[in-house]
Amino acid sequence: MKFSTLRRLFASFVILVVLLFSADRFGSYALDLVVKQSGFRFSELYAGGNSAEIVILGNSRAVNAFYAPDLEKKLGRSVFHLGYNGMSTELCEAIIFDYLDHNKKPSLIILEVTNLGVSNDLIKDIKLYAGLSTRLRSLIQREDPQLNRACAFTHLYRYNSELFLRTLFYTGKSDQAWINSGNIDPDFAINFVPSEEEQSQNLYPITGSNWKALQRLVVKCAAEGIELRLVASPYLPAFRNNLALYDSWVDTFHASLPEADLFYDYTQSLTDSEYFADTLHINRKGSRALLDAMIQDGVFNSESL
Question: What's the mean pLDDT when you consider all of the chain?
Fold first, then answer.
């Protein structure tokens, strides 16, 4: 093959690489603009300008335990729900620290704390926002180096995510009315028995990255003058009553907290199956009953509210 032909092929290859790189970076920039315009909760976080007085965090148990519109109506305070299915305590830490960087400081943060035993699998989807958060990028780099390299190589790969579809769905509308309105089958609720693995899983481990993240969150809130409440939402009685080790777990957890009034345990507060969507999640009716109990217990009392 002639040298001139090789040179043309090489030049064509370089041009192709430059075009692909440019398309990747321009495409990701354009999609970032789309994501930021969405009413999806994380998009609103990174768009900035939120001034909610109460911010809620946690996994799916938080999503279904705290219904933001009802809280706002009952409390007369602005509420922003940042909880999401599968969100670990460590991810909650990154999300709330990012929230404080981009938005007005809230007066009260409520964390549904039974996500202490949850893994960081959500990073596979929340990578969508890695371009907007050094904390998320650091977490992805630590948890999944291969995923981190893929996202660094092609920014468009970040949009291979369920969360991107949610941002599109919530374009032009809010996602704050997201909650389960279904009801568990009463017969199933009565006869349900959790597996041995479920019965022995520690809901409040005081070791590992989630526990360290919770400790940092407690310190951060104290430094910022933000009230923090750790709440355990209700479990279906047939599930909760079969957790023989629960009392010892929660006693150790409670004793390890810097303040006694940080933690509110509502795991046994609702006994009727009509309040539950499934064994782990209450429904909207249950969330209303939980809200009444929390108000009565002074969970939302704060000098700055």
Answer: 91
Which among 126, 82, 75 has a CA at the least distance from the CA of 102? 82
> From CA 208, how far away is CA 166, in angstroms rounded?
31
pLDDT (tens digit, 9 = 90+) per residue, 16-69? Answer: 555 666 666 766 777 888 888 899 999 999 999 999 999 999 999 999 999 999
The whole-angstrom separation of Cα 28 and Cα 11 is 26
Please tell me what DSSP assigns to residue 266. Answer: -
DSSP classification of residue 109: E
Cβ-contact 33, 46 below 8 angstroms: no
Q: In what order do the strands lie in the sheet with 54-57?
A: 79-81, 54-57, 108-112, 227-232, 263-265
Residue 137 forms part of a structural domain:
no
Range of the domain at 239: 49-120+173-296
Q: How many domains does the chain have?
A: 1
Can you read off the two tokens belonging to residue 300? Answer: 């939302």
Asked whether residue 150 is domain-assigned, the answer is no
